Amino acid sequence: MIKSMTAYANYKTKSHWGIVNWEFRSVNQRYLEIYIHLPDKWRRLEFEIRKRIRQHLIRGRIEGILHLEINANYIITELKINKELVKKVIYAANLVKMQSNEGIINPLEVLRWPGVISDSEQDNNIVMDNEILNTMDNAINNLIKTRENEGAVLKSLIEKKLESIKKEINKIRFHMPEVLKLQHKRVLEKLKNIEVQLENYRFEQELLMIAQRIDITEELDRIDAHINETFNILEMQGAVGRRLDFMMQELSRESNTLLSKSINSDITTYAIELKVLIEQIREQIQNIE
């Protein structure tokens, strides 16, 4: 599916502790560049955020901004004591004391034992972190949908331009027999004016050389092949922007050859229109992932 690299999306979540609002902007870029703006306290989430974005996006400059509104009475730090763990620590300490017949059990040392004390802020942070990441996932999904919608529009525009290119190619093919006939006539007139007579064999050889120099059949065939391949690429899944850009380079090269071989104003006009259409498509492709 064709995806545009230009998009905007946001997603807002309300919970018991406050409001989470993510904003994402995406513009075209050769590679994937991610810029995340987070409150200082939540910079610890940046690695996970970048990881999740890379799982969904391949190209583009992505800028994400996190807005938080936290209820003032939510974050109240309370110490929590793991009573079951305290009992086990004291029991173990008493066993050691009985075996050694020395030492005392210091309550402060018991409190220092890992896991005995925890605070509510840690639990709050876990809840908030999960909410922030889940909201971000939804915002990224909205961004992807927007990129897909924009991509569908770009695809339609490109397909119309490709059809226009095919029409210009058909015009050139239609006029080529007439162009060759006129060129044959011009050669005869020039020879007549300078009163040069050539043997039939030599004359045919000269005409053949001229025809080869102005023959554009191969170029037209290659352009047809490139157009068909471009249509196929537009139906592919994943990132296809670079493939499309390469095809436009090939089409541009063939159109330049058409112009260089043109000996007729009509053919030149069609070839110029061809180049204009190719450049228009190329401009649109710069926004495709």
From TrEMBL:
InterPro entries: YicC-like_C (IPR013551), YicC-like_N (IPR013527), YicC/YloC-like (IPR005229)
Keyword Plastid: no
Domain of life (superkingdom): Bacteria
Cofactor: a divalent metal cation
Keyword annotations from UniProtKB, A to Z: Endonuclease, Hydrolase, Nuclease
Domain Endoribonuclease YicC-like N-terminal: 2-155
Keyword Hydrolase assigned: yes
Sequence ranges assigned to domain Endoribonuclease YicC-like C-terminal in this UniProt record: 175-289
GO molecular function, one term: RNA endonuclease activity
The family this protein is said to belong to: Belongs to the YicC/YloC family.
The protein, known as: YicC family protein
